[in-house]
Target: Urease accessory protein UreD
Amino acid sequence: MSAQTTQDSTDRHGHRFDAGRRWEASLDLGFRHDGQATRLYRVDHRGPLRVQRPFYPEGRDGTCHVYLLHPPGGLVSGDILDIQARVGAGARALLTTPAANKLYRADRNAVAWSQRTRLVVEEGGLLEWLPQETIAFDGSRGVQATEIELSGSARCLGWEVLALGRPASDLPFASGHLEQRFRLSRDGRPLWIERQPLDPDHRRFHGAWGQRGCSVQATLWAVGLEDESAAIERLRQGLGQGGNDLAGSPGAGEAERWAVTVRDGVLLLRYLGHSRREAWSLCEAAWTLLRPMLMDREACVPRIWFT
Model:
């Protein structure tokens, strides 16, 4: 690259704005049970990605609640986020975020961002992965990859909620390209692998066999339930009632925007619609119903969700 080209692609502060731009941030957490409580014993971070002090709203012998903080509030072209967490044997951790994650429009060079999350849960450990929703702005480009590795009798419950565009502001997701990758395994054996490209120019985006033009999707998973059939029945009964019309009752046909199933020991709840609030409420309600079945404790809503 010539000196002139290099000069043209940087600003007066030395920041790059060409296809080679890279702004990285990483976070590596470690949890272990010391015989009395779950402790956050390792916090390694680089760049604007860190955590608040751990909270114990369920008592010192309960789940350790940790909030992941990313002060910029979103990803722009060239951003690379790497999140890793390991929950040790017998430990219990709940990870969440204080606000929605925003995926901003790519720059004029169409440089992509990337976010990788790797979660490891050891024998007898339990992890709840409950981030707030992700909002992809029109023109955003990047890859979101989540990998969960379970060992032995480890358990996990989590969700991911994605909103495409901002239709309420008349700013739909009309251009750009996102790719979501998900891999969940136990003892090295894959239980659920998924790769989902989201491109408004692809017919899958609008086809009845694909996205159906919906702007919001959500997936909730639970692994380690003792009675999966009872869990499905509890969800169908609990989410089909209550008067808030989250997704219609079972058998509601076109009015029904969610479905639940179990495959290879993984309970999956899917939502496809047009409302972030509806998707979030559905996931939170499902978590409230499933948590007592997974860990014999009632749901304890993180305080950060109320701020």
